[in-house]
Amino acid sequence: MKKNILFILLAVFCHTLCFANQEKELFDDGVLLFKQDRYQEAIDKFSGLIEIAPGNPDAYKNRGVCYMKLEKYDPAIADFEKAKELFPELKGLYSNLGVAWYYKKEYEKAVKNYDIEIEMAPDNYIAHFNRALCLTELRRDKDALDSLSRTLSLKPDFYWALCYKGDLLARSGDIAKAVESYETALQKDHDNDYAKDKLASLKEKNKTDQIPEPRNNPPVIQASTNTGLSLQSGAFISRPNADKMKTKLIESGIDAGILIVKDSKGRDWYLVRSGSYASLDEAKKAVVVLKEKTGLEPVIRPAGNW
After folding, report:
1. Do 145 and 197 sit in the same domain of this protein?
2. Is the same domain home to 152 and 265?
3. Mean pLDDT, residues 271-280 taken together
4. Phi, psi at residue 116, to the nearest 5°?
């Protein structure tokens, strides 16, 4: 009798060990395929793991991340919700849900999930930063700036948080603080052109606002003499950056071009423009359409001019 019990226990142990090894192999293979950007194959591995271990929350979470990489946000959210049902305290789960809801443009839901993530991990500076992005989409710029301040208190050298803070301050009209934020970003990363271009554009705009009528050396405009209004999605010193912005607009179905102008110092500026509108009302309607398609915040400018 004792021998039979021992044999049964040993058989059960071996069977369990076999399944445990298989689970680990599937999990490790899925992670490796994910790192190799082979997302569908990784999904297949995690799906196999879920078949034999339906109670494994990490399998659902990882499969959800793979779905997100393929821009399949609905199945990703379903997997994250299942992982939450199995293990509500799973690390990073609510950040993943926040990202998925952000890409579905469900910004309120994204913010709620980031709030939970931050409550669980208050030092997660990425969660604070992503929360700021969502709040901006909800036009809650003050709250977004608060989130960015928290981000930078945790990660003072976070280049993109400094840039985004500069963007929001510039939009609110606080030019001095915006310049300060861009300059700090430049100190953190000299090689990235975003802050450099934004800073130069802001300083030039500030200068032209202070001097409404140029006297001796007005800017030389290398462009057509079109009348009317157009939308400007970016102003760059760097031509490659302007080309990237133009490509983004074209890929979103916006017919865009680049207007080249010289400032009073003889520097070339590359202004990414789109559309031609006879009235301010038409231009304002086009701003709404462009923002919905691209997420950008264009400004209305005279066609063919600064």
Report:
1. yes
2. no
3. 78
4. -65, -45
